[in-house]
Specification:
heterodimer; A: alpha+beta; Cytochrome Bc1 Complex, Chain A, domain 1; five-stranded mixed β-sheet; B: alpha+beta; 2 domains; six-stranded mixed β-sheet; 38% helix; 17% strand; Peptidase_M16_C (chain B); Metalloenz_LuxS/M16 (chain B); signal (chain B); metal ion binding (chain B)
């Protein structure tokens, strides 16, 4: 039996009832579970699918279990550069043909690279599902990039670096977080890499990387939206089933990030940032350690989700030392990071914000948390989940995140149950264990006037 | 207050691990399978009704998940900023939720967030909007809160100071981004002294000038039921929408005074046609080319929409094809068409490394020209129409997207059933119409080009092609000035 979302909403208090009762009446908010289907082909390809006929579209996503943590030595940014090259030629497709098969028929495509995963995602009118499955199988098995395409796409990635790191006033700060937060683990390499390492990359590197990591037993295919399950299974078997599983093992990152032994501090300067900033990080357990990672997400939301959050109220609203604040529990397959940051308001210095960040975190880690506040962040997080699930693409992303980062596809549903059960004690426990009871890395980000370049013939 | 939250039982269907009928590699097709028959997109039809006080209530149903987006839109935005008070409409919108009906800013934020949403307010051009997306059971409370902040804001002096300081810092941040600064300068070039020519987020000088009396005056003049629209999109029926709107906004009184008169959006410009702004140390150059465009009510609206789709509306459109895909000069180049009440704006933008800015300028101008010089081919046109239509359909999949599309029609007084006619209107556009349209509206001589970046690396090359190009220092830029240059003799 396959349930559609509409059939699962019986437990939601509907509007009509809400209107008849006073607005303060407790309304039960239930998130329908995602009724996904899972199977694995003999060659190791994991296939997840969820039927949803809300729109005549279907999302097709390929998630490869490879990310910037797997960049070859001296080639930081390579996994991401490679992601761009997957849109170039294959044995049976010319460069950019993926755009012809998606955009040109009313669909869309994109891809992203993270520390742990690289995902390729498309959404198309569902009569194009078969075509897209063929095309994904084709670039998994038959990639064939030439030198000219390689060079022009590398230039594009270098512009991406300039745009996100150099021309973005706080890009250099966020790009410096990983390099300063890890000592041993390859997470210390920024995903975007560096201009020099990108320049060093060669076409043979591309071929070797594809051979090593782009294989059916290192991939998860996710299909969500308007499709017929029997037909999907048949097409998946036809296009992906023949792809051989290589005999060589998939290289795994084995580096263990040691516990921090002391607090560390770094300074990064920027020629374009108008205001200083400060960021503080702590090491976290793997995202799949859900007993801890879910309360950590609740802690981050208590600190920074919305204008009523603790950091906003303290740093931005009451003390007015910061223009923007954030806290994030960035869970990864390996050790993650808990990050708190502030972009200063005019006339204020990083030390003022840093002191308040620590005060709020210590307060949250040790003092009672009002039930209403805990309830508020759970409602925020659950509503956010519901919003994501409105589209086929959103459903597929939720499944991919669960399957590849959070410990398995079942987490797409069980983590919400766990979220609803998080208590004050849980929040205290995880913050004391990983944050207030551990060592921090602090990065001061300071504007520094541009020097050097002089302009000829200045203003008339 | 506490709610018990139940999770449904997990439903997972795990099939046996059988993959039948593997084909050998040799049988893998060398060409993509042909797509199945085309599908029909069903677009929900909005319902509209007007309350006795003049408030237009629009509801549009999408019932898949228990979510509703509520948007209160005022049909006036930054174009109503008085001279010297750039940023007033935006600051006013921003202050709505910072204290109202006896609640302080922290209490309002906490109330909205306890409902699972957040109250987001901003002034655009021709509209100011404040909205929230919540689960259906929370909608009555959310609307109550929305009504309080729209109808009874405090505009407390302390909150005005906070908002002013934040707006100034936001502005500094925005001006440090090359493409953002270039877009701002280009709008002044296109609209000159007209109502759309200034910085909607204010300028350092105008933000310093705004007083509480100005905010109160703008709110009293524009935030009134006969100048407002309430959009409810999602899991809601027209009858429920009517009932909820009446309960929250039915007793909002309509003033006897007439609505303020609008001034023309576009007027004479005194900005040079090619403007270079030196931002030393900039990691990239922001390149912008802009033209005036016809208003939203223009009969050729869909021709313009398709023309923009060909020029720069998507990844595969001409600007990105020439600048990124073929030459690797940018991470992304594109254009947008923003029609407004009595005029509009075409804006093409790209960021590139400083030394390639001159090349990007020429590629951009060349693509604007090509649109009027030669007819778009049938395949290209079909592809770009499909991209437009697909994107439109997807924009209607979320309650927030649906509210935005319907809201835009309502703001410009376009009949709301147009939401269902988009596809046919786009399909009807011909290559000849696009050529004619481009010839009429994209005359290469009439545009404005702005490049912001480390000018030493691009100014000489740009001046070779455009000897009349004017160079300004970003530090000396005066956003309040019609010429963007400091007043003479100062």
């Amino acid at each position: 039996m396959r349930l559609r979302p509409a059939a699962l909403l019986a437990t939601v208090t509907l509007l009509a009832t809400a209107l008849a009762t006073p607005p303060v009446a407790a309304a039960e908010l239930t998130i329908p579970p995602i009724p996904y289907h899972q199977r694995t082909l003999p060659n190791g390809l994991q296939v997840l699918s969820v039927e949803d006929h809300a729109s005549p579209n279907v999302a097709v996503q390929m998630w490869y279990h490879v990310g910037s943590k797997d960049d070859p030595q001296g080639r930081s940014g390579f996994a991401h550069l490679f992601e761009h090259l997957m849109f170039k030629s294959t044995k049976h497709m010319h460069a950019e043909q993926f755009d012809r098969l998606t955009e040109d028929v009313g669909g869309a495509n994109n891809a992203s690279t993270g520390d742990d995963v690289t995902n390729y995602f498309e959404v198309v009118p569902s009569n194009h599902l078969q075509t897209l499955l063929w095309a994904e199988a084709e670039r998994l098995s038959n990639l064939n990039v030439d030198e000219a395409n390689f060079k022009s796409e590398r230039a594009v990635v270098q512009e991406e670096y300039r745009q996100s790191v150099l021309a973005n006033p706080y890009g250099k700060l966020f790009n410096a977080i990983d390099p300063h937060s890890y000592t041993v683990h390859p997470y210390k390499r920024p995903t975007i890499g560096s201009i020099e390492d990108l320049d060093a990359a060669t076409l043979p590197d591309v071929i070797a990387f594809h051979k090593t990591f782009y294989r059916p037993d290192n991939a998860t295919l996710i299909v969500a939206g308007d499709f017929d399950p029997k037909q999907l299974d048949a097409w998946v078997d036809q296009y992906f089933g023949w792809i051989p599983k290589p005999a060589a093992p998939i290289p795994q990152v084995t580096a263990k990030e040691p516990q921090r032994r002391k607090n560390l501090r770094y300074t990064v300067t920027s020629e374009t940032a108008p205001l200083p900033a400060v960021a503080v990080t702590w090491l976290l357990p793997s995202a799949s350690d859900t007993a801890d990672s879910i309360p950590l997400q609740v802690a981050a939301a208590l600190l920074s989700q919305g204008d009523s959050s603790r950091l906003y109220q303290s740093l931005v609203y009451r003390h007015q030392v910061a223009q923007r604040v954030g806290a994030d529990a960035d869970g990864r397959v390996g050790p993650g990071l808990f990050t708190a940051y502030a972009i200063l308001a005019s006339g204020h210095q990083p030390a003022e914000a840093e002191k308040l960040l620590h005060e709020e975190i210590i307060w949250l880690a040790t003092q009672p948390i009002p039930a209403a506040e805990l309830d508020k962040v759970k409602t925020q997080l659950l509503t956010g989940e519901l919003k994501q699930r409105q589209t086929a693409q959103g459903l597929a992303f939720a499944l991919g995140q669960a399957a590849l980062i959070d410990g398995g596809p079942e987490h797409v549903n069980t983590d919400l149950t766990a979220l609803q059960k998080v208590t004050e004690k849980d929040v205290h426990r995880v913050l004391q264990k990983y944050v207030t009871g551990a060592h921090s890395v602090t990065i001061d980000y300071l504007p520094q006037a541009a020097k050097g370049t002089t302009t000829s013939g200045v203003a008339k | 207050m506490s709610r018990r939250i139940h999770a449904c039982r997990l439903a997972v269907f795990t099939a046996a691990m059988i993959a039948a009928g593997n084909v050998p590699a040799a049988d893998f097709p060398a060409t993509p399978p042909v797509p199945g028959p085309a599908l029909h997109l069903s677009v929900p039809t909005p319902s509209t009704q007007t309350l006795a006080n003049g408030l237009q209530v629009v509801s549009v149903r999408r019932a898949g998940l228990p979510l509703v987006t509520a948007q209160l839109i005022v049909r006036s935005g930054g174009e109503m900023d008085p001279p010297l008070l750039a940023g007033l409409a935006d600051l006013t919108a921003n202050l709505l939720s910072k204290g109202a009906a006896g609640k302080g800013a922290p209490q309002i934020a906490a109330a909205a967030e306890a409902l699972g949403g957040s109250l987001d307010a901003a002034a655009g051009w021709d509209e100011s909007a404040i909205g929230i997306t919540v689960t259906t059971p929370k909608l009555p409370q959310a609307l109550g809160l929305l009504a309080e902040v729209v109808r009874r804001p405090d505009f407390a002096p302390a909150e005005l100071e906070r908002a002013r300081t934040q707006a100034l810092d936001d502005l500094r941040l925005s001006l440090s981004r090359p493409a953002a600064l270039a877009s701002l300068a280009a709008a002044r070039g296109v609209f000159g002294e007209g109502a759309y020519g200034h910085s909607r987020g204010g300028t350092p000088a105008s933000l310093a000038r705004i007083g509480r009396a100005d905010v109160l005056r703008l709110h009293a003049a524009l935030y009134r039921p006969d100048n407002a629209i309430l959009i409810l999109a999602g899991d809601i029926t027209p009858a429920q929408a009517q009932q909820l709107a009446q309960a929250s906004f039915g007793d909002w009184p309509k003033p006897a005074t007439p609505l303020p008169v609008r001034t023309a959006g576009k007027a004479a410009s005194r900005v040079p046609a090619v403007l270079l702004i030196d931002q030393r140390g900039a990691g990239q150059a922001g390149v912008v080319a802009a033209h005036a465009a016809p208003p939203r009510g223009d009969g050729d609206y869909y021709v313009g929409t398709v023309a923009n789709a060909v020029l720069g509306g998507s990844y595969s459109a001409r600007l990105n094809e020439e600048i990124r895909i073929k030459r690797g000069l940018s991470y992304g180049a594109g254009s947008s068409l923003m029609p407004r009440r009595d005029t509009g704006l075409w804006l093409a933008t790209a960021q590139t490394k400083n030394p390639s800015a001159a090349q990007v300028v020429e590629l951009m101008l060349g693509e604007f020209r090509r649109l009027g010089d030669s007819r778009v081919g049938a395949d290209e046109l079909a592809a770009r129409k499909a991209t437009l239509i697909g994107g439109y359909g997807r924009s209607l999949e979320t309650t927030a997207g649906l509210a935005e599309q319907v809201g835009e029609l309502a703001v410009y007084g376009v009949p709301l059933d147009e939401v269902g006619k988009y596809i046919a209107r786009v399909q009807a556009v011909t290559p000849k119409q696009i050529e004619k349209y481009a010839g009429r509206h994209l005359d290469a001589g009439a545009g404005t080009v702005v490049v912001v970046g480390d000018a030493a690396q691009f100014a000489p090359a740009i001046r070779q092609a455009h000897p009349q190009a004017t160079l300004l220092e970003s530090t000396a830029l005066d956003l309040d000035s019609q010429t963007l240059q400091p007043a003479a003799g100062k």
